[in-house]
């Protein structure tokens, strides 16, 4: 296990790299990973921002890390999300980009006085990957607090409450528990078998919980090697939380290098920024220590914000 300081900085940088690589082609429809693939940072094709600009995936991750630096406080967490949306905090150019409707509506509820843990949507239409965007800082926070960590009722409740600030459906809670546990287990033991065991550990827990057991079949394919080894044309990439996890895990299981996994992820198109960001973060842990492509780092905007956020976090008692 590498030091927390190294892995935290590497992971947040990876979030931003995958985000910035995929953001310019966000929502493009692609039928084949090899059709005009994106392998380098390019200018955004719709918004007038330079290559290397990241979106809400990175902004929300930085905001979450800064908040957790001062402890687990959902009111503080939502306040920072609101500052991001309204004032452009935690962004390269003081303007929020890539804001999804689920997050925006949650922030508006918070601004109107709703308690943070009730701000998330309960609509099945919001079973989307907003649930997954900002879990990396929480995973490091949980592991630091619990050196003998296990995925149990206490861990699940902490993750659910955090997730509920934007998404409050049972499927969202299971997805968040799954990804958080995978992050923690990869920090502890960086290999693909640990990743798959982490999936099983979480699904076994939720199978034993009556209120969540019905959600488990949506994720069981992540335990099946034949699903993870099938052709990329069989994988559906979208903002849906299950589709996102399917895409991320497929990219990781069908790559042996960091940059290969990330390139595959963004070239699925669709929600390229989020799928790219999550894949990049997990790949940075799976293949640690990672040497990021210099051409990607050279164009990455706002790198100083990542360094400052991580440096302050590591001076606290929570990381």
UniProtKB/TrEMBL annotation:
InterPro entries: ADP-ribosylglycohydrolase (IPR050792), Ribosyl_crysJ1 (IPR005502), Ribosyl_crysJ1_sf (IPR036705). Keywords: Hydrolase, Magnesium, Metal-binding. Coiled coil: none annotated. Its cofactor is Mg(2+). Binds 2 magnesium ions per subunit. Gene3D superfamilies: ADP-ribosylation/Crystallin J1 (1.10.4080.10). The keyword Magnesium applies. Mg(2+) binds at residues 55-56, 271, 274. Pfam families: ADP_ribosyl_GH (PF03747). One of its GO terms (molecular function) is metal ion binding. PANTHER family: ADP-RIBOSYLGLYCOHYDROLASE (PTHR16222), ADP-RIBOSYLHYDROLASE ARH3 (PTHR16222:SF24). Belongs to the ADP-ribosylglycohydrolase family. This is ADP-ribosylglycohydrolase. It comes from Lentilactobacillus parabuchneri.
